[in-house]
Amino acid sequence: MTFRFLTLLLVLATASVTFGYEYPLSSSMVRDACLLGSSSNGEPDKTLAEYTHVLPGLKVEMFSTTVSIETPYTQVTQYCRQKLNYSVQDAEKDFRDRPMQFRIHMEIYFNPSHSTPDNLHDLKIRFGQDDEEIVPVLVGSEPLWAPHNDTDYVESIGERVDFGVKAGEISSTDLNVEIDTYDSHHAHTIFDLTHLK
Questions:
Q1: Rounded alpha-carbon distances, angstroms, from residue 113 to 13, 68, 82
Q2: CA gyration radius for the chain?
Q3: Cβ-based burial of 173 (10 A; exposed 0-12, middle 13-18, buried ≥19)
Q4: In angstroms, rounded to a whole number, what is the distance separating the alpha carbons of residues 161 and 158?
Q5: pLDDT digit string (tens) for 111-161?
Q6: Which among 141, 155, 60, 145 has a CA at the least distance from the CA of 106?
Q7: pLDDT tens string 136-145
Q8: pTM, whole model, 2 decimals?
Q9: What separation, in Å, do the N-terminal and C-terminal C-alpha atoms of the chain show?
Q10: 143 touches 158 (CB < 8 A)
């Protein structure tokens, strides 16, 4: 009986540590995010790297497409990381009941059909969870250029795109991201929000 009880405690303790995406953020999640952000070891970089996926199927030369997400948890982590003398109590006060967005940043590398100030017309981008489409708000976009001298003429090699979604519209299930280009290239990735906070 004692062994079963200890096993149950171990399972419950592990489960509380592995909760994924949550919004609104609980005090313990804000505390955890702030402690991670204020850590001076390599743990913040290692953890935040999980929120960026590289999609090698869409690339130009050495540049591969990336998709990054910023959850409320990672936003608190980054905020605490940039502040000096910022306490967990400050973070709990500042982020309690604060409306937040779920942000999606993309650097999509492909050969646009023609160079214009906007390459979005060449892309079809879809987001979804649980077989339901999520329609984010376009926050901004701009062409991507290969490194070059100021006097060189270069054509765009892609598009940087930023989206926002009300954080409460995202659930702790897989987030599917699909990108299609005008010339039939396709890329797909899944963010596991049962694991990512």
A1: 53, 25, 40
A2: 20
A3: middle
A4: 10
A5: 998 766 778 999 999 999 999 999 999 999 999 998 877 777 778 899 999
A6: 141
A7: 999 999 999 9
A8: 0.88
A9: 34
A10: yes
